[in-house]
Amino acid sequence: MRILVSACLLGVRCRYDGESKACPAVLNLAKEHELVPVCPEQVGGLPTPRTPAEIQGERVVTRDGRDVTKEYQKGAEEAARLYQLLRCDCAILKARSPSCGCGQVYDGAFSGTLTPGDGIAAQALKRINARVITEERIILNPI
Questions:
Q1: Which of 40, 112, 129, 140 might form a disulfide with 75, Cβ 3.0–4.6 angstroms?
Q2: Is 90 exceeded by the pLDDT of residue 60?
């Protein structure tokens, strides 16, 4: 299988805090599958490190109030384009991220509270009928 993967899960230091969230269960998939790294936030033009952001309604806003919706949308569109161009079979994205979260994201109040929903890139991938899961699904039940 060819799998689009949040680059931070592969050890790339691209998260908002300049760190990664390397996931051994996802890295282990490289033994049998082709992994395609992507960081929609970087592809959308945001720097690393960057101010944390959360989804607030239809917008993505940083903790200091800056609207970064355009950058998140651009990165999401590029992730979806990459998925289609490379004919990926599924996507494994970083749980709870405002870009990559699938099923749950933070509530937009920077309170640490989770709410049902998908990140901007996860939404874009789902619109093209991509199979989207998080690393937590892989940890519990490998592909």
A1: 40
A2: yes
Beta strands at 34-38 and 2-6: parallel, antiparallel or unpaired: parallel
Token duo for residue 116: 């049902």
**Whole-Å CA distances, 132 to 46, 48, 89, 98, 126:** 23, 24, 10, 15, 7
At 70, the pLDDT band (50, 70, 90 cuts) reads very high
Element spanning 26, H or E: helix 24-27
Tell me the pLDDT tens digit for each residue of 71-130.
999 999 999 999 999 999 999 999 999 999 999 999 999 999 999 999 999 999 999 999
Range of the structural domain that residue 35 is part of: 2-140
SS3 120: helix
- Find where tokens 């299988």 sit: 1
Prior bond to 47 cis, omega within 30?
A: no
Which pair of structure tokens corresponds to residue 69? 């919706």
- Sign, CA torsion 136/67/40/87: positive
